[in-house]
TrEMBL record:
It comes from Candidatus Thiodictyon syntrophicum. InterPro entries: PEP-CTERM_TPR_PrsT, SecYEG/CpoB_TPR, TPR-like_helical_dom_sf, TPR_rpt. Transmembrane segments: none annotated. It holds the Pfam family TPR_21. Residues 142-162 are annotated as: Disordered. This is Ancillary SecYEG translocon subunit/Cell division coordinator CpoB TPR domain-containing protein. PANTHER family: CELL DIVISION CYCLE 16,23,27 (PTHR12558), CELL DIVISION CYCLE PROTEIN 27 HOMOLOG (PTHR12558:SF13). PROSITE patterns: TPR.
Length: 924
């Protein structure tokens, strides 16, 4: 409703003023005279026709344009008024004739800031205009949600013109804005005692009746206005609004047809048509009408509110967020907008932003608001506060089954299954036919492993909803959980018989096929689902699971990529794909997927956690630390997050920060074994064996039958190079848990403490039972070589080399050396294979070069030996081999220099005696 209606008397006065001005372009015409007469009679439609006819004949008729603008202002069409005023400005009309009308047109469109700027730019106004200007300034301030400032302007206007009805009306609007409706009604009634025929006050009083649901009383006042002004557009629109409130949509449509006859394309008329379609849930038609309103009046809050609700219903959540945020910014007290906005943000998995909207209004709020806040906390992972608010909602409305169902969801998430079952049973017993409660009750029994109770609940639902596939599907799930696959299959097939389009049953039948190891049949079922629903998430993830069972990584990635692209609002496919790449060690691809996912879901905590893991493993450790810090600010009590954050800091060589994070994880979860192990490991890495030993002893005390504490103790002694002491806890660990890692740790400790025979015994026993453990076999070969059992070492090495498709160059090198010592002709070929795999390793180059030299390929052998010597000039055996080769090729002086260096650098090496003898022979 426009702020200050222009009366017919004012329009006529303007016509007289224009007629008195010099200049033919703004002289009154016969058409404008007729328009004035129609205005006096209250016939706005006829006046409009006359003025439009005048402009059709003479587009430069400034008088007609200004009168038409004022007529548009009278009916509340600010956009049309602005257009006509701008045309008059282009025709050179003096500013004093249009400047305040222009301000009023801006206010009618919600352009309050522009209106204030126009008023400020106008400067000092004539005394006759000051009261109206102050009133308009009050209207703009009220539109800017500044009621105190508006009151000051209206009071100033009343002081300038004590008889100003418009200033008095402004004060009434301030009273309404401040929310004290009783005081506002009282003030309106007092105003009507002074001005009983004031149209706008009558309309305001009618609106108060309508706001209270007193639509009949409102209609009576609208009719009173229309008896005096049959073409009063606002009264017609008010009648239509009241009729909509009375559910008389046919009557409302007729009333809106009448408004079209007065003025076409009025935004309020279009808005009310949108409201009618909205009530009938005709979302598209309603949205089309409301979009038209916002095109004409971009700041129209009611249209934005309804469009926000419509877009939410259509799943366009980001668009809904934009509209509803605008509404709340302008009217923070609008609870409906807050609730729908919160629901949209919950659906977008942005719980923090949902909480931000609800918390300012939740005290004393209705149960639905409490339930929404509880759901938001639940999604954020704060189950305690989520449960608290849902409990309050149920206490406020104990007979609402839907609220009990929501509370049960929180209890289930918090692991309180029995309490959840009680709430769900209460919801079912209320008899409000909340299917979700029945479904959750069955699922809760299944979670509790009470399969018979689940069957009882689902079969009861079968009787109540025999024509729905859902009960049969639930019974199938219960049978499946019991391991009765034939009965489960029968129920799933029954669900499909009731509703062939119920793809959930088809998915569950695919699960039965997988359980029976018929992967091809499972794939056919998933593909059946995808024929009718190519984007079905469950079917696409099912194909990914089949690919994993078949060890087909390409098919797995293809299925997850397809699921991710087809379901852009869901995080699960992206999370699974990231996890897959991480498990394969393809950290760059994991990081790429996680980054893309985090861009789409910036507030989703599982996504951010996966991104942080990928950043840690993908080499972006500083970014990972920032990501974990962001997560921990929201969830400082999460032990897993603290543990993962510690891992990132450890990788960043921040041992102190890592230790603090692991300790925090243990404070929050004292039985967190991984955190205890990590604390011990990072402490060892930081040179803090005391802390590591404390962790080891704590684990041994809490888990005496676990190897982990003893392994850590052994590692502490090994870090101190006290291998004899290390062997004892490693032996205890191996007794408790026979694994390859512990076997190798024990063997290494025994070997390092001088008991190589004991190390061989441990690995021989392990290798006998685990012939495919190539790491242990390789270590066994090395120790056999050390204790002088070359033939056995050769056998072990050959077994490893023949089994290892990747070929380990160090093992090949050891095998070549043993072949060489045994005089085996295969030595040269194996040495070359090792050299080709790792030509920069000096020990491998030395072996290959020496074997070539001793095989008579002296020059080639020397060249490779010199390559090894350049890489490792302090290694005595390599130096000795080079000296021998140089001597053989007649380069005695060079040989002498190298021999002297060997004896100087390593006088006690195994090669020292041979080097001294050769040096003496060469006369050095």
């Amino acid at each position: 409703m426009a702020s200050g209606r222009i009366s017919a008397r004012t329009l006529t006065a303007t016509l007289a003023l224009l007629a008195g001005l010099a200049g033919t372009s703004i002289l009154a015409s016969e058409a404008t005279d007729k328009a004035s007469t129609f205005l006096e009679q209250g016939d706005l439609r006829a006046a409009t026709i006359e003025l439009k006819n005048a402009l059709q004949k003479n587009p430069n008729d400034a008088t007609a344009r200004l009168l038409l603008a004022r007529l548009y202002l009278r009916i509340g069409n600010g956009a049309a008024a602005e257009k006509e005023i701008r045309s008059a400005i282009d025709l050179g009309v003096e500013a004093s004739l249009w400047r305040l009308d222009f301000v009023e047109a801006l206010i009618a469109q919600g352009k309050f800031d522009d209106a204030v700027q126009r008023l400020e730019a106008a400067g000092e106004l004539p005394a006759a205009d000051q009261a109206r200007a102050l009133t308009l300034r009050g209207d703009a301030a009220l539109g800017q949600n500044k009621p105190d400032e508006a009151r000051e302007h209206y009071q100033a206007a009343s002081a300038a013109d004590p008889g100003s009805e418009r200033a008095g009306l402004g004060l009434l609007r301030v009273a309404l804005k401040e929310g004290d409706q009783a005081a506002a009604i009282k003030a309106t009634d007092a105003f009507l005692e002074r001005f009983p025929n004031n149209t706008e006050a009558l309309l305001m009083r009618a609106e108060y009746h309508r706001a209270e649901g007193e639509n009949a009383a409102a209609l009576a006042l609208f009719d009173r206005v229309l008896s005096a002004e049959p073409q009063n557009l606002v009264a017609h629109l008010g009648r239509a609004t009241a009729l909509i409130g009375m559910k008389d949509t046919d009557g409302a449509r007729k009333e809106l047809t009448a408004t079209d006859q007065i003025q076409k394309d009025v935004p309020m008329t279009i808005y009310l048509r949108g409201v009618i379609e909205f009530q009938d849930k005709n979302w598209k038609q309603a949205g089309d009408y409301l979009d038209r309103v916002l095109t004409a009046v971009p700041g129209h809050l009611q249209s934005q509110l309804l469009l926000g609700i419509i877009r939410y219903s259509e799943g366009e959540l980001e668009t809904a967020d934009q509209y509803l945020s605008n509404v709340i910014k302008a009217t923070p007290e609008n609870l409906q907008a807050r609730k729908v906005l919160a629901a949209a943000r919950i659906k977008m998995r942005e719980p923090a932003r949902a909480i931000e909207v609800l918390e300012p209004v939740v005290q004393g709020a209705d149960p639905q608001t409490m339930a929404l806040l509880g759901s938001a906390y639940m999604l954020q992972g704060d189950l305690e506060r989520g449960q608290e608010w849902l409990n309050r909602a149920v206490e406020s409305a104990p007979d609402v089954a839907a609220l009990r169902t929501q509370l049960a969801l929180t209890l289930l998430a918090g692991g309180q299954t029995n309490k959840a079952i009680n709430e769900l049973q209460s919801a079912v017993d209320l008899g409000q036919d909340i299917l979700q409660a029945d479904v959750l009750l069955v699922l809760a029994h299944l979670k509790n492993k009470d399969f018979d109770a689940a069957l009882e609940a689902s079969k009861g639902l079968e009787q109540r909803r025999a024509q729905s596939p859902i009960p049969y599907n639930l019974t199938g799930l219960a049978y499946m959980a019991k391991g009765d696959l034939p009965s489960a299959r029968e129920r799933f097939e029954k669900a499909l018989q009731v509703d062939p389009a119920f793809v959930t049953a088809e998915i569950n039948l695919a699960r039965i096929e997988v359980a029976g190891k018929d992967l091809d049949a499972a794939q056919r079922r998933y593909e059946t689902v995808l024929k009718t629903n190519p984007k079905h998430l469950g079917a696409l993830l099912g194909l990914a699971a089949l690919a994993e069972l078949r060890n087909d990584p390409e098919a797995l990635v293809a299925a997850l990529e397809r699921a991710k692209d087809a379901n852009p609002t869901v995080t699960q496919p992206g999370l699974l794909l990231t996890r897959f790449y991480i498990t394969r060690g393809d950290y760059l691809k994991a990081l790429a997927v996680a980054n893309e996912l985090a861009t789409r879901f910036p507030d989703d905590e599982p996504t951010l956690q996966m991104l942080a893991r990928a950043q840690t493993l993908g080499g972006q450790v500083p970014n990972a630390i920032r990501s974990f810090d962001q997560l921990l600010r929201k969830n400082p009590q999460d032990p897993q997050l603290n543990y993962l954050a510690g891992g990132a800091r450890w990788k960043d060589q921040d041992h102190t920060g890592a230790q603090a994070a692991f300790r925090r994880a243990l404070e929050l979860k004292p039985d967190f074994v991984d955190a205890q192990v990590a604390l011990a490991s990072v402490s060892l890495d930081a040179g803090d064996p005391e802390t590591a030993m404390q962790s080891a002893k704590a684990l041994q005390k809490s888990y005496p039958k676990s190897a982990v504490g003893y392994r850590i103790e052994g590692s502490v002694f090994a870090a101190k190079r006290d291998f004899k002491s290390a062997a004892t806890p490693f032996k205890k660990a191996f007794e408790l848990e026979k694994t390859s890692t512990i076997a190798r740790q024990l063997a290494d400790a025994l070997n390092q403490s001088g008991n190589t025979a004991g190390a061989v015994a441990v690995l021989t026993g392990w290798a006998k039972d685990n012939p495919k453990d190539l790491e242990a076999q390789a270590m066994l070969g090395l120790f056999l070589q050390q204790v002088g059992r070359p033939k056995e070492a050769i056998t072990v090495y050959e077994g490893v080399v023949n089994s290892d498709a990747k070929k380990n160059p160090l093992l090949l090198n050891n095998l070549a050396w043993l072949y060489h010592k045994e005089g085996n002709a295969r030595a040269q070929a194996v040495a070359k294979e090792a050299y080709d795999l790792a030509p920069s390793r000096p020990e491998i180059a030395d072996t290959y070069g020496w074997i070539l030299f001793t095989a008579g390929k002296k020059t080639e052998g020397l060249s490779i030996l010199q390559q090894a010597y350049l890489a490792f000039p302090t290694q005595s055996e390599i130096g000795y081999h080079v000296a021998v080769a140089l001597d053989a090729l007649g380069r005695k002086d060079e040989a002498v220099q190298i021999l002297r260096k060997v004896l100087r650098d390593n006088p006690n090496s195994d090669q020292a005696a041979d080097a001294a003898a050769l040096l003496k022979k060469l006369g050095g």
